[in-house]
Design a protein that fits this description.
The chain is an alpha/beta fold. It is built from 5 helices and 6 strands. It has a domain of about 80 residues: Nucleotidyltransferase, domain 5. Belongs to the ExbD/TolR family.
Length: about 150
């Protein structure tokens, strides 16, 4: 005797809703995580390290060509722009000279950038300084033509 033929119903098909949800979540995850790479490409910079920090990294075997200075490169002068936040607000210090506003610092940076040496500009913000103020100095330094702009870390 033959088994009775069963009619296919809509409930017999696999549910696609959960599969669509999983694919959508994976898509959102990869799009979201890939967006974190953009600032690194837009803001290409190195971190200024002291010689003792470089030696410590080198002794641990973690040094890369990005962290160690090139021995054959011509020596350059470092210009440190400190961004200091106190009770009166932000003030800037280029070398030993204090400035009250970013507008006062810009002509000085432009003159330094015009010098024939390969000057390295190091942005050294205090702990309370916002990242926007650091990026403003960085943007002006790049626009003025500094070959290297670094951020200092303590």
């Amino acid at each position: 005797m033959k088994a009775p033929h069963r009619r296919a119903s809509a409930h017999d098909e696999p549910g696609m809703t959960s599969m669509i949800d999983v694919v959508f979540l994976l898509l959102v995850f990869f799009v979201w995580t890939s967006s974190f790479d953009k600032p690194e490409r837009n803001l290409a910079s190195q971190i200024a390290m002291s010689q003792s920090e470089l030696e410590e990294i080198n002794s641990q075997g973690q040094a890369t060509s990005d962290t160690l200075p090139d021995e054959d490169a011509p020596r350059s002068e470092d210009v440190v722009v400190r961004i200091i936040e106190d009770e009166s607000g932000l003030r800037y210090q280029v070398g030993a000279v204090d400035f009250a506003a970013i507008g006062d610092v810009l002509p000085r940076l432009q003159k330094i950038a015009a010098l024939p040496t390969s000057t390295v500009l190091i942005v050294d913000p205090d702990d309370g300084v916002s990242f926007d103020d650091c990026i403003e100095v960085f943007d002006h330094a790049v626009r003025f033509g500094f070959p290297r702009v670094l951020f200092a870390v303590d």
